[in-house]
Design a protein that fits this description.
Strand content: under 5%
Distance between the termini: 39 Å
Radius of gyration: 20 Å
CATH architecture of the largest domain: Orthogonal Bundle
Amino acid sequence: MEGPTHVSAPVLAAYGYCEAVTGSQARNFAYGIRLLPADKRQAMSALYAFSRRVDDIGDGALAPEAKLVRLEETRALLGRIRAEEVDEDDTDPVAVALAHAARRFPIPLGGLDELIDGVLMDVRGETYETWDDLKAYCRCVAGAIGRLSLGVFGTAPGAADSARAAEYADTLGLALQLTNILRDVREDAANGRTYLPAEDLAKFGCSEGFHADRAPRGSDFAGLVHHEVRRARALFAEGYRLLPMLDRRSGACVAAMAGIYRRLLERIEREPEAVLRGRVSLPPHEKAYVAVRGLSGLDARTISRQSTRRRT
């Protein structure tokens, strides 16, 4: 792992490309990482750009067989990055940036293999009977991102219980992904995908799916949403225990990103059928409030006090 050294022009250009991709494609993510110092922001942008490439293969218009080939080619590129076989004059800026970031920080690149595995599940059209089944998928596509990000953030010196930081980062990723699934339920249905557990859909009379701007006739759609919201809240509560383990700016970044999704969850809880009419989002001023709250350390201090009370 490299120390803080001069960054060459080709590597800076590669990071610039990744930051442009992040800014244009991931507004919530970009909002959070702007709170980080430059080196961590660059590394997080490189992680996002590689992850976006994987996601775009899965979501694109290629035939499934072609997607499988492209995903395995991307896995081979990851192998080259891991083996330090990507030079700074390589023509792929995402590979250049990620290779540099992996030398700068102890990023567990195996998490990107897990992401590819998760997108392969999408391409194969897998569905999920139980929450445990869905949780395995979420760990691949979101929990792994939490653990990769922790490689960039690190933990603060002397942080209590830091051995569990990766576990909490993984859990927070699950909370964000379940919120995403609720937000995108109509969009995913239009693309032929169902993520919510089949046993939950059956329990609330929603097994026929979501193909209109209103809930299936005779279903308890609000009950389904509130059931999943409670599950996501429990994941947020557990995952937020990561915050006191991070330095101030890393903690602010995580608090901002997680706070945006937690507020999305609250909106979905208040008006469940809104997710059937369009994508639920937060206005810029509310995102700014969440960022300020994260930078103030308020969320981290609150979680720290709660953790202290639980131990006493």
